[in-house]
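Shape matters. As here.
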Amino acid sequence: MDTIVVPVAHHNRWNRQVANIAAELEDVSDTRALVVYQFTDDLESTIEHLDVDRQAADVDELAARKSGVAEMVETLDERGMSCSVRGIETAEEKGEELLNLVKAEDADRIYMYSRKRSPAGKAIFGSGLQTVLFNSSVPVVVVPPKLARSLRRLPQFTSNLTRGSPL
């Protein structure tokens, strides 16, 4: 069984797009999705909002209660793919934490959403996607913002992915 890592974006529409592309490209009966929510500065507020004891708080359970995670799990589940949720506490570099998880889970692929960001924005704020793309030891499938245009190339992506060719 293959394992894919699917980090949750901050907008449900993006999560549905990534989940649908993953379900379209993967053999859903033989793939497990590890849906990942990265807590940067919102872990404490999530614990407070859910009125959970800090000592008893399980980061995976807290992640599962996030709306974006629920949206992605629901979409993948509807498409027939088994899912599990992982919450990660991370300080700043989301890309490195994600790559550590990919290695620890022996994942086969990563599916990520890409949003438009100017070169200056990348330089100032960094880019988790860029870190993952440059340093990943497994194939990374990037779902672009203009999904409708990209769907025309989906058969090419599928054939490259199943042959193990780089996208």
